[in-house]
Automatic annotation (TrEMBL):
Database matches in Pfam families: HNOB
Coiled coil (UniProt feature): none
Name assigned to this protein: Guanylate cyclase
InterPro entries registered for this protein in UniProt: H-NOX_domain_sf, Heme_NO-bd, NO_sig/Golgi_transp_ligand-bd, V4R
SUPFAM superfamilies: Ligand-binding domain in the NO signalling and Golgi transport (SSF111126)
Top-level taxon in the UniProt lineage: Bacteria
Gene3D superfamilies reported in the protein's UniProt record: H-NOX domain (3.90.1520.10)
Organism: Litoribrevibacter albus
Domain 4-vinyl reductase 4VR intervals: 117-177
GO molecular function, one term: heme binding
């Protein structure tokens, strides 16, 4: 499953903005990695440094591109988790299983991969998510959450209350379930 983020990034950029944008933005070494499906963590490369030239070309901020990409990639990630489609899982039960089940399994299968630390406080109409990762990919996390809401057909609203990009030690994202 490693590589799904990278090949997904190529199709996301090519489909949304054109193959020429991908070709002119990514370094050759990365393109080789996509083509030959080289194993290794997808985030060995720097997602921010790939998306920065794309953002300049298409005039969309990197934070927004990461969100769009998270939403786009979510159904592809679920292909590795058929039980989410088969079982009677809700948006809420899926979300709270991401850290203790999904990412834990990822870590067991691929010990070298680093996944973020995600914790929740649960309340009746909302989940408060605490995200910690040295990669600071909280915008990607937001997009993945929106992708999960699309999949489970849940109406949600996100509020990014605290952010590592603004000096906080962790991100706090409130997910209001309508
Ligand atoms: C809404 C649900 C999810 C959220 C919020 C989430 C969040 C994230 C984020 C933000 C990262 C980037 C690394 C970092 O921040 O340090 C990541 C990595 C990863 N996630 Fe998730 N994730 C979700 C669901 C899933 C699912 C369903 C799968 C697959 C079954 C998955 C598998 C992975 C893998 C394999 C990586 C590491 C990729 C690599 O290093 O190559 N995640 N996750």
């Amino acid at each position: 499953m490693l590589g799904v983020y990278l090949s997904g990034l190529k199709s996301f950029i090519s489909e949304r903005f054109g193959a020429d944008v991908w070709e002119s933005s990514v370094p050759e070494t990365l393109e080789n990695q996509v083509q030959y499906g080289k194993p290794g963590s997808t985030f060995d490369f720097e997602l921010f440094s790939i998306l920065t030239p794309v953002a300049e070309q298409v005039d969309v901020p990197v934070s927004e591109l990461l969100k769009m990409f998270g939403r786009y990639i979510f159904p592809r990630l679920l292909d590795f988790m058929p039980e989410a489609r088969e079982q009677d899982m809700s948006f809420r039960s899926f979300m709270i299983s991401v850290d203790r089940v999904v990412h834990k399994d990822v870590q067991r299968l691929y010990p070298d991969v680093r996944v973020p630390k995600i914790e929740f406080i649960q309340q009746a109409n909302k989940l408060t998510m605490f995200y910690r990762s040295e990669r600071k990919l909280c915008y990607l996390a937001e997009g993945l959450i929106i992708g999960a809401a699309d999949f489970f057909q849940e109406q949600i609203e996100l509020r990014h209350l605290m952010c590592m990009h603004h000096g906080a030690d962790y991100c706090e994202i409130e997910i209001i379930i309508q």
